[in-house]
Design the sequence.
């Protein structure tokens, strides 16, 4: 660096002042929280409920006094406008709006883009829904953290459930959305499956674009290839369209479908989903959670959400609540460590590490690398007269520590070391 | 690639081609008669789909049998075509016939931008999927692959019917022949006593109805979201450019060509599927820019 | 002092002083200037009567080239990256232009469109090479040899862009007043006569095309380093349309037009995002339609007293 001595002195003086300032933060009148979610396009069926959840839950938090008396004020950014416009908006909210806390986002592609920018802007960035494991594994961040699990945990759980349901499966085809999540999740699923059952044949790998509205040709191809199992980690409107078109063409009768993200589509698809489809919830998020369904916090929120929107909450709602709960818990931990004083962004970011908190379902723990540990729930669809849509039966809950990559390792490689003994681990409880 | 897969690729391609043809038809008609490329044509496609989804959804809510959709879909197209097509022609198009071609294009592009936001304002940003008619018509098995009768039979039949109807209309009806005359030479037609203003309006409305019809027919099969018009417009350019501007028979062949090329590539080279329509367009424009089917036009001095 | 010159000074002052009041506006200003430079490139072609709906090809292609370079050699200076952008744009212009400039009118427009859509589709599809629809990220490079924090970097980039805009605006004006530029205008009014005079229409348009491609390429490089991100969307046909839109809105009579147009465009987008969420396209659509009827030669033409523009040949009769 070719800075003169004078410049160096100035920078040094400035940093001392800033550091001193950081230790004595003034408690703000309100805490602005920027939230990115999908408000347009096929993914909006997934993102809009999360927005509603944020508004309801923040109202609840504020009614109880906010964080140490400081109320939260949310502002929402649409992820559906495309990555570059999203980035501009993100920067504007941070720089113009003076927002220091962001919850971003749903799309793994967007998380990959936003994480370095958040670190650069020195804002606390909580990844409340995106799943790609690469963002926290490829680089160490201070300001970026995740209040939920990642693709590894979810895909390993999905493979385990699949092999429990169909231990002698012979062939599989995948149809995922063509972007970071679709590609990364397949990589992990495939590596895990081949580590546990090396003789499985992969007959097709299809990657239609994110937001595609028509899967007819892919469905024809899948019908022609006749795989025993069809995997899709698609979600939102894309998954809805795929399932509807596949059901119209009878594809769901001829192959076993495993849809790790379909909990968010259960109500919308209703009876279009036949029985016996493997459904995951990206976490243990389900309004009929075997351990938590009578828990007052969950029950009350489900009811409130239903009254407000007419539908049951989907996992994006749970993730949003978890993100907000994580935020609040982080602030409270930092305030305690700061002897009751309002903490700086850096102090909260550091407090997020090692945090343990609870959203609406099981407790979530955040490791030192910012990655959250979240239990996984999978089940089989079953129609019942009580509800207009299938519920899940034969639910298994997988504890996170057993199926998440250890800190410092790269997931695609770690999953290859999983041993078949894991399949019969006694901690994987099934609930009928 | 095994035998059946060829047949399957052809079947997939044909239903896609049917939609492409209907959209391209409208665009090529407008160009033939008025010498303008309507960049907002894809918007009629989108609006047709939205209108069909709304009307269809309303009908189902009233308890009507899905068979009514067979009437509702064309009805939606006619409403959109007359309303928005008519509005656009009278308010905008007829005032720009004598302007610089660049300005003409920009005006239709602005109309496209307006329509894009209009869709969002009226129908919102969430996807629409009203597919009752598809489920109602059921499925057929071909070589062990299940197809919906809607995509396999209905779409190509409608496209064919429209093609034949339009051709006869242009050849045998009085209005049709006037349209052909205007497309050959506007000035001379006026001199011969043809009401060119009225003909232009009729042509534009018919073209818009065709675009909207394609959208209405497509909407039960796919998820209808904002931005679908912008995508369709480029694809219809590809068809029109390949066929040759103003060529109706050519548009049919070009649509089939592109539809088949796309579906074959999904089977053989799936990574190239999205590129295929544009590659074909580039190749045709490079080697035969006037399109594969255009007739030599005398150059007016 | 003529009105266009006043407009130039006003814009430059606005660009340099506004960030003092609103520091976050630097990035939109940089992007607006980049847009203006792309529109400047398109205006060269408009002078020749040809309209390209595919120049996003050069913006996108250069953007990705810059992204690849920045990822491969993180110490490469931003100045070099900008030069790379312009260079790649020019190179693509040479290659594509060599066959595209043989076409006229609608075929010219459509061929450009098709090529840009091929690039768009290819970039979106080949995930492992190009990052697919998520695009590619690039880190901040040193600028003029210095590693800078974000704030400083943006200020330096803004000043650089404004200086480049001034320089290029002046250069384009000189070009259009030169023989080559006049020949370009002559292409619009009567190409056959031009050939008769002994000037190759092919070469004239080719040179104009290369210049427009280089300008769009530079614009793409600016987008890339300002955002730290390139996505296939940069090559989508609607973006090409927006560039043409901005050029016509501002007017091709004077280079300042491109920047006035870009300014109006960005302002409406920002304003609409804040107050009329999502309706900015509608507002701009109406604005342009209004312009076409009331001021068909763009806003900059409103600044000129009468037809004293060297390239004004709308009223040419054959």
Sequence:
């Amino acid at each position: 660096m070719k800075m003169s001595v004078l410049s160096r002195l100035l920078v040094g003086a400035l940093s001392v002042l800033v550091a001193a300032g950081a230790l004595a933060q003034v408690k703000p009148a309100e805490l602005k929280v920027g939230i990115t979610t999908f408000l347009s396009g096929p993914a909006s069926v997934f993102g809009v409920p999360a927005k509603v959840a944020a508004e309801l839950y923040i109202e609840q938090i504020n009614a109880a006094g906010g964080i140490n008396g400081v109320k939260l004020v949310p502002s929402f950014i649409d992820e559906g406008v495309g990555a570059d416009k999203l980035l501009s908006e993100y920067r504007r909210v941070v720089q113009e709006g003076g927002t220091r806390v962001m919850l971003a986002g749903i799309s793994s592609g967007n998380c990959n883009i936003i994480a370095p920018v958040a670190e650069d802007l020195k804002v606390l960035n909580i990844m409340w829904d995106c799943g790609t494991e690469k963002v926290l594994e490829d680089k160490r961040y201070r300001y970026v953290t995740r209040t939920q699990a990642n693709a590894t945990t979810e895909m390993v759980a999905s493979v385990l459930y699949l092999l429990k349901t169909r231990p002698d499966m012979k062939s599989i085809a995948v149809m995922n959305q063509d972007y970071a999540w679709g590609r990364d999740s397949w990589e992990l699923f495939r590596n895990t499956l081949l580590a546990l059952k090396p003789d499985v044949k992969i007959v097709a790998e299809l990657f239609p674009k994110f937001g595609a509205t028509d899967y007819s040709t892919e469905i024809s191809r899948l019908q022609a290839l006749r795989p025993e199992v069809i995997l899709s980690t698609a979600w939102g409107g894309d998954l809805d369209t795929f399932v509807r078109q596949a059901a119209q063409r009878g594809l769901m009768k001829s192959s076993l479908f495993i849809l790790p993200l379909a909990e968010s589509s259960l109500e919308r698809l209703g009876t279009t989903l036949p029985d016996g489809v493997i459904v995951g919830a990206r976490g243990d998020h389900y309004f009929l959670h075997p351990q938590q369904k009578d828990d007052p916090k969950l029950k009350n929120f489900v009811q409130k959400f239903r009254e407000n929107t007419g539908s049951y909450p989907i996992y994006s709602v749970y993730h949003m609540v978890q993100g907000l709960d994580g935020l609040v818990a982080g602030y409270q931990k930092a305030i305690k460590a700061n002897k009751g004083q309002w903490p700086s962004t850096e102090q909260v970011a550091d407090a997020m590490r090692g945090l343990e908190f609870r959203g609406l379902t099981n407790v979530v723990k955040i490791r030192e690398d910012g990655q959250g540990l979240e239990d996984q729930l999978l089940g089989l669809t079953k129609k019942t007269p009580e509800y207009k849509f299938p519920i899940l039966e034969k639910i298994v809950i997988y504890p996170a520590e057993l199926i998440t990559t250890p800190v410092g390792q790269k997931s695609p490689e770690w999953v290859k070391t999983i041993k078949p003994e894991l399949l019969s681990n006694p901690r994987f409880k099934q609930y009928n | 690639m095994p035998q059946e897969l060829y047949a399957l690729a052809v079947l997939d391609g044909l239903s896609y081609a049917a939609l492409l043809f209907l959209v391209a038809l409208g665009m090529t008609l407008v160009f033939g008669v008025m010498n303008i490329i309507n960049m907002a044509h894809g918007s009629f496609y989108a609006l047709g789909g939205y209108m069909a989804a709304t009307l269809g959804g309303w009908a189902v809510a009233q308890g009507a049998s899905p068979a009514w959709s067979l009437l509702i879909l064309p009805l939606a197209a006619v409403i959109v075509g007359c309303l928005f097509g008519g509005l656009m022609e009278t308010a905008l198009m007829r005032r720009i016939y004598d302007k610089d071609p660049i300005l003409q294009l920009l005006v239709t592009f602005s109309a496209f931008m307006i329509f894009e936001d209009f869709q969002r304002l009226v129908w919102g940003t969430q996807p629409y999927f009203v597919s009752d008619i598809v489920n109602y018509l059921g499925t057929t098995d071909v070589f062990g692959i299940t197809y919906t009768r809607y995509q396999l039979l209905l779409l190509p039949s409608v496209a064919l019917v429209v093609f034949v109807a339009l051709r006869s209309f242009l050849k045998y009806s009085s209005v049709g022949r006037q349209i052909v005359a205007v497309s050959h030479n506007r000035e001379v037609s006026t001199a011969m006593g043809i009401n060119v203003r009225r003909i232009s309006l009729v042509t534009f409305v018919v073209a818009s109805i065709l675009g909207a019809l394609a959208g209405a027919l497509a909407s039960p099969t796919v998820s209808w979201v904002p931005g679908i018009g912008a995508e369709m417009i480029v694809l219809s350019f590809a068809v029109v450019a390949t066929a040759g501007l103003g060529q109706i028979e050519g548009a049919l062949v070009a649509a089939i060509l592109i539809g088949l090329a796309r579906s074959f590539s999904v089977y053989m080279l799936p990574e190239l599927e999205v590129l295929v329509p544009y590659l074909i367009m580039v190749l045709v424009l490079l080697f035969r820019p006037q399109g594969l089917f255009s007739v030599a036009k005398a150059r007016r001095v | 002092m003529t009105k266009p010159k006043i407009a130039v000074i006003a814009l430059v002052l606005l660009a340099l002083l506004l960030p003092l009041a609103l520091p976050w506006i630097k990035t939109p200003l940089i992007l607006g200037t980049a847009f203006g430079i792309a529109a400047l490139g398109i205006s060269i072609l408009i002078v020749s009567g040809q309209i390209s709906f595919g120049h996003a090809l050069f913006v996108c292609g250069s953007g990705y080239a810059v992204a690849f370079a920045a990822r491969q050699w993180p110490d490469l200076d931003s100045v070099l990256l900008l030069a790379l952008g312009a260079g790649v744009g020019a190179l693509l212009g040479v290659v594509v232009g060599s066959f595209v400039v043989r076409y006229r009118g609608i075929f010219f427009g459509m061929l450009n469109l098709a090529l840009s859509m091929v690039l768009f589709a290819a970039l979106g599809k080949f995930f492992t090479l190009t990052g697919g629809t998520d695009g590619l990220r690039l880190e901040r490079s040193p600028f003029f040899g210095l590693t800078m924090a974000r704030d400083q970097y943006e200020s330096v980039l803004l000043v650089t862009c404004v200086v480049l805009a001034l320089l290029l605006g002046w250069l384009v004006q000189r070009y259009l007043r030169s023989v080559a530029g006049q020949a370009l205008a002559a292409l619009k009014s009567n190409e056959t006569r031009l050939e008769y005079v002994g000037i190759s229409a092919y070469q004239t348009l080719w040179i104009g095309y290369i210049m427009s491609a280089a300008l769009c390429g530079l614009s793409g490089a600016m987008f890339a380093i300002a955002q730290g991100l390139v996505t296939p969307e940069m090559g989508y046909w609607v973006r090409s349309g927006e560039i043409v839109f901005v050029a016509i809105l501002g007017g091709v009579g004077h280079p300042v037009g491109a920047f006035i147009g870009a300014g109006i465009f960005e302002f409406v987008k920002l304003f609409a995002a804040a107050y009329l969420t999502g309706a900015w396209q509608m507002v701009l659509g109406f604005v342009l339609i209004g312009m076409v009827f009331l001021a068909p030669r763009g806003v900059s033409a409103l600044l000129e007293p009468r037809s004293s523009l060297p390239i004004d040949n709308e009223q040419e009769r054959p």
About this structure: DSSP finds 14 helices and two strands in chain C. Confidence is low (pLDDT under 50) at residues 311-318 of chain C. Chain C touches chain A at residues 22-25, 27-28, 31, 124-125, 127, 132-135, 137, 139-140, 145-147, 150, 223, 227-229, 231, 233-234, 273 (CB under 8 Å).
